[in-house]
């Protein structure tokens, strides 16, 4: 399980204001139930010269560009120079870093997006953590609940990790590229610098510096 620890997946913990959550926990899915309380505690402490509290439990950086037709529900923090495009739906418990793009018709719910993350076109990202400079191509989504509604089990070969959580989307390490039209099944964990081919169906753990072509066909990147 060591390869799925916060330390292995995220080398840039300074690229999120929630870095302390990653230092206090071992595995990223342990952070998901902590997001709401972290936002509620951190929001009032944000520098007022940099952030506006636009509604109850919603803090938006003054330099962020928010489309008039975007819907933002709290608790939420949206960082500096982030762009939230028309029709975006931020459902709450959303910690969105600096320099991010949340695109048209993209839905965000109970997530941490590190700085410079892009989910720019028709994405659903629920109960997920997206590492520094990760990117989800158009129409790629996270599936965060199993069809039988049982707790999510993360698989790494023959190893099965009981998470005790009903809802886990995807964990993307730093610099992950997800191709268009991809489905990340509940509990997908993708290591740093990995590329996922378009129209893929991903489940379980994908090691870092890989090229995921399809189930059973994963090449080393370097």
From TrEMBL:
Keywords: Acyltransferase, Transferase. One of its GO terms (molecular function) is acyltransferase activity. Pfam families: GMPPB_C. The keyword Transferase applies. It comes from the Bacteria. Residues 72-190 form the Mannose-1-phosphate guanyltransferase C-terminal domain. InterPro entries: GlmU-like, GMPPB_C, Trimer_LpxA-like_sf. PANTHER family: N-ACETYLMURAMATE ALPHA-1-PHOSPHATE URIDYLYLTRANSFERASE, NUCLEOTIDYL TRANSFERASE. This is Glucose-1-phosphate thymidylyltransferase. It comes from Anaerostipes butyraticus.
